[in-house]
Amino acid sequence: MKETQTQAHSTNFASTNRTDLWWIEPMATGFGFLCFVVYTTWAMFQAGYYYAAPYLSPLYSPTLMIDPTAAGSAPLGTAWFGAWPGWWPKFLPPSPAMLVLIGPLSFRLTCYYYRKFYYRSFFATPPACAVTALPQKDYKGETHLLLFQNIHRYCLYIAIVYILILTCDVFRAFFKDGQFGVGVGTVVLYINVLLLSKYTFGCHALRHLLGGRTDCFSCANGKEHLGYSLWQKVTHLNENHMFWAWVSMIWVGFTDLYVRMVSMGIWHDFNTWRH
Amino acid sequence: MAERTFRVWRGDKTGGKFAEYKVDVGKGWVVLDVIHRIQATQASDLACRWNCKAGKCGSCSMEINGKPRLSCLTRMNSFKEDEVVTIQPLKTFPIMKDLVTDVSWNYTQNKRIAPFKPGPRPKDGQYRMYQRDVERSQEFRKCIECYLCQNVCHVLRDQDKKDKFVGPRFMIRLASLEMHPLDTEDRIEKVMNEYGSGLCNITKCCTDVCPEHIHITDNAIIPLKERVVDRFFDPIAIILHKIFGKKKS
Ligand code: SF4
Ligand code: SF4
Ligand code: FES
Ligand code: FES
After folding, report:
1. Is A213's CB within 8 Å of B230's CB?
2. Contact of A106 with A114, CB cutoff 8 Å
3. Stretch(es) of chain B classified as CATH 3.10.20.30
4. Which end of chain B is more exposed for a tag (fewer CB within 10 A), N or C?
5. What is d(CA B78, CA B75) in angstroms, rounded to the nearest whole number?
6. CA angle at A132 for the pair A127 and A133, rounded to the nearest 5°
7. Which residues of A touch B209 (CB under 8 A)?
8. Given B66, B179, B201, which is nearest A115 (Cβ)?
9. What is d(CA B223, CA B215) in angstroms, rounded to the nearest whole number?
């Protein structure tokens, strides 16, 4: 019998006796998310090629204001508040995406799933299960500075408005110059709304608000109330919330890329309009 | 039978060492079988807590190759043939001897929670509940108190916040009481201020290790956090609560 002097557990950062590849998940998710952030930031600063009639990139929707001189911009008539203002600082590109991305961004940043992922990947609290967390003098969790996470349900309300707006965009993507038709872009935009809905309507806060908040689904009259069936539906989506979070995020990026490529004339959009 | 190598931590609260044992492992063995064989043939003083050997009593929790597991449910064929298997006690609780830890802190937390308090009985003396109404609480009743979730929770394990957070096992107990259709007690204020729901950062390790597959984070902790938001952070919900003044959120 061979013996070595040691403690039962190390308290050093990232120490563990796990023998599996525990670091792959936080690395891969962290890297994947960073790729998305880099792409969207780049796309946002382009301030052009976000429209290829009749498709509007989801990153630029709704077009609150439009600079009609930019290449690949949406028609001025579709802007909610008209042309881009002259006083806009020169160092910021006249990009509609700048005004709208904050909504979806705040929704995702305060999402319970994203919180799990970035606390693990970027804050190492903990990097993975049974792997020693980054040492903190006085760990505060989601109290104090992180209390703002509690606004998530308000971000959800905004996200639902975006779903409605993007649904209108899909509707518009069926009409080119007033003529009904379908293109690959229409399908791409449609899938985008579908995936975003699966993500948004599986939200934990929604699950609570629609039914989870009650202690009894049928005490009022012995019958199952509407909240129960809604709660069940949200629960069903919620079980795969992480999956929908990722596929919807990747597809948003792809949708922007698709519209961008078509708008720049690099990709050809197959459609029934034949032009 | 194949000879396999095990590193088992031996010691008490003052310190100790890993001891290496070679054991002939039989077909269908679990890690607890190995420990019993070591006790029978090489180290009769090796301490280990166990009871049912069926994953139901929650006694045999330990860390096997770094993962918090029930040793009676960890099959030897889940490891590679030549893999050295490291066996440690739980990290979060004080070591008594070898693989046995003192988990009594958990019982103290349990006592802090106001027990089930049903309202008055209906006229015919019979409480009635529908299955769909107790289903949520029933999931949490599957808990076997193995404390693997308490052990893996970094708030207790690494951040040393046992004085501020009761841990996932008691968050599910709180959720099962709060969601119970007959219960009248209101524990939401304490969920935030005394039991420390805000300390949990929903990183889900408790859910990952639970041998009963209870959705601790999704079905208990997040719903409790949302009830705390209702009560303290959502201005609309606060106003509604003031107007309708329900006993529970
Ligand atoms: S989800 Fe919360 S309670 Fe569960 S292990 Fe993580 S921090 Fe602890
Ligand atoms: S919730 Fe699961 S992991 Fe935690 S004590 Fe109960 S059975 Fe064990
Ligand atoms: S919890 Fe993920 S969107 Fe609300
Ligand atoms: S001995 Fe009972 S759970 Fe393992």
Report:
1. yes
2. no
3. 2-101
4. N
5. 6
6. 55
7. 129-130
8. B201
9. 11
**Distance from the alpha carbon of residue B52 to the mean position of ligand 4, in angstroms:** 5
CATH superfamily label, B2-101:
Beta-grasp domain (3.10.20.30)
Q: Where is B20: in which H helix or E strand?
A: strand B15-25
**Alpha-carbon distances, residue A265 vs A72, A181, A253, A258, A259 (angstroms):** 10, 20, 18, 11, 10
Is-contact B115 B183, C-beta < 8 A?
no
Q: What type of residue sits at position A192?
A: N
E strands present in chain A: 3-6, 51-52, 55-56, 175-176, 179-180
- pLDDT value of position B242: 86
Evaluated on CA atoms A219, A220, A224, A227, the torsion sign reads negative
For residue B249, give the H/E element and its range. Answer: none
Among A88-92, A254-258, B55-59, the least confident range: A88-92
What is the enclosing helix (H) or strand (E) of A89?
A: none
Q: Which two tokens stand for residue A234?
A: 């949200």
The Å distance, Cα B164 to ligand 4 centre, comes to 29
What is the whole-number distance in angstroms between the Cα of residue A8 and the centre of ligand 4? 22
Pairing relationship of beta strands A3-6 and B15-25 according to DSSP bridges: antiparallel
Cα-trace Rg, chain B? 21
Q: B46 near B35, Cβ under 8 Å?
A: yes
CA distance A128 to chain B (A): 8
Q: Where in chain B is the domain with CATH 1.10.1060.10?
A: 104-244
Question: Which token pair is B130?
Answer: 């529908």
Testing ligand 2's pocket by substitution, the residue of B59, B145, B166, B217 carrying the most ligand atoms inside 8 A of its CB is B145
Residue B89 has pLDDT above 70, yes or no: yes
State how far the Cα of A209 lies from the Cα of B236, in Å rounded to an integer.
12
Q: What is the C-alpha to C-alpha distance for residues A259 and A185, in angstroms, rounded to an integer? A: 7
Question: By alpha-carbon position, which residue is closest to atom 2 of ligand 3?
Answer: A111
Task: Report how far apart the first and last C-alpha atoms of chain B are (Å, whole number).
Answer: 59
List the structure tokens of A187: 């399908």
Task: Enter the tokens of residue B83.
Answer: 């893999």
The DSSP element (H or E) to which B201 belongs, if any, is none
Scanning every residue of chain B, which has its alpha carbon at the shortest distance from the alpha carbon of A215?
B179
Residue A224: helix, strand or coil by DSSP? coil
pLDDT > 60? residue A5: no
Q: Report which secondary-structure segment, H or E, holds B148.
A: helix B148-152
How far is A249 from chain B, CA to nearest CA, in Å?
Answer: 20
β-bridge partners, B9: B18
* Six token digits for residue A246: 């990722």
Q: Is the pTM of this model over 0.90?
A: yes
Superfamily of domain B104-244: Alpha-helical ferredoxin (1.10.1060.10)
Q: Look at A215 and B181 and tell me if their CB atoms are within 8 Å.
A: yes
